[in-house]
């Protein structure tokens, strides 16, 4: 008897599918570690594949080249700053957003890769496109914080959203990526308070 389409859709992934997902994630991790150690310009796909316990063909079955591989891997990393629910106030939302950034920025590999992305973006239009997409992912999530604050009446509809979006991640990025300092929960709270005051001063 023929199976219903709903039954086929509900079927769990096969062992081969799970292995492919696990290998893709292993390749992402290997890429980031190699990138952090050698920089993008000196990145070797052979070393990446070997580090992931795979052959170079495993990379080319997924991506046509190094830039496309990096683009997808960086986008997957950017999704770690995924959406969070309404925390009830502008300051609480900013604190939650900062906490997401801290999770990403505190990783030593990320701290090395991000400055290298920006350096490469200054020399390569292709890498600039990747960098722009990373920035847009972060700004799309930050925009939800601004929109919720406007709907609550905490910020005016006429606020300059571009400037507001510049404010949201800046102090966290400066502290954790530029000067490579840690950020405690108490300091995170102070950054949220300061950012909230700065946004409200844009009235």
UniProtKB/TrEMBL annotation:
Pfam families documented for this protein: TetR_C_11 (PF16859), TetR_N (PF00440)
DNA-binding region per UniProt: 44-63
Entry keyword rRNA-binding: no
Keyword line: DNA-binding, Transcription, Transcription regulation
InterPro entries: Homeodomain-like_sf (IPR009057), HTH-type_TetR-like_transc_reg (IPR050109), HTH_TetR (IPR001647), Tet_transcr_reg_TetR-rel_C_sf (IPR036271), TetR_C (IPR011075)
Domain HTH tetR-type: 21-81
Gene3D superfamilies membership: Homeodomain-like (1.10.10.60), Tetracycline Repressor, domain 2 (1.10.357.10)
Stretches that traverse the bilayer: none
Name the UniProt record assigns to this protein: TetR-like C-terminal domain-containing protein
The organism's taxonomic lineage, starting at the top: Bacteria, Pseudomonadati, Pseudomonadota, Alphaproteobacteria, Rhodobacterales
């Amino acid at each position: 008897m023929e199976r219903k389409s709903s039954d086929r859709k509900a079927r769990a992934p096969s062992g081969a599918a799970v292995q492919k997902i696990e290998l893709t994630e292993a390749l992402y991790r290997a890429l980031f570690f190699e990138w952090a150690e050698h920089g993008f310009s000196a990145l070797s796909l052979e070393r990446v594949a070997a580090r992931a316990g795979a052959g170079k063909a495993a990379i080319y079955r997924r991506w046509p080249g190094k830039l496309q591989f990096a683009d997808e891997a960086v986008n997957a990393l950017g999704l770690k700053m995924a959406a969070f629910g309404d925390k009830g106030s502008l300051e609480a939302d900013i604190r939650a957003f900062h906490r997401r950034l801290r999770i990403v920025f505190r990783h030593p590999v990320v701290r090395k890769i991000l400055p290298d992305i920006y350096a490469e973006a200054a020399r390569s239009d292709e890498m600039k496109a990747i960098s722009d997409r990373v920035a847009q992912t972060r700004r799309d999530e930050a925009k939800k914080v601004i929109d919720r604050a406007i709907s609550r009446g905490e910020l005016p509809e006429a606020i300059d959203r571009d400037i507001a979006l510049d404010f949201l991640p800046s102090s966290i990025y400066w502290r954790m990526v530029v000067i490579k300092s840690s950020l405690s929960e108490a300091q995170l709270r102070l950054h949220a308070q300061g950012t909230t005051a700065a946004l409200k001063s844009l009235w």
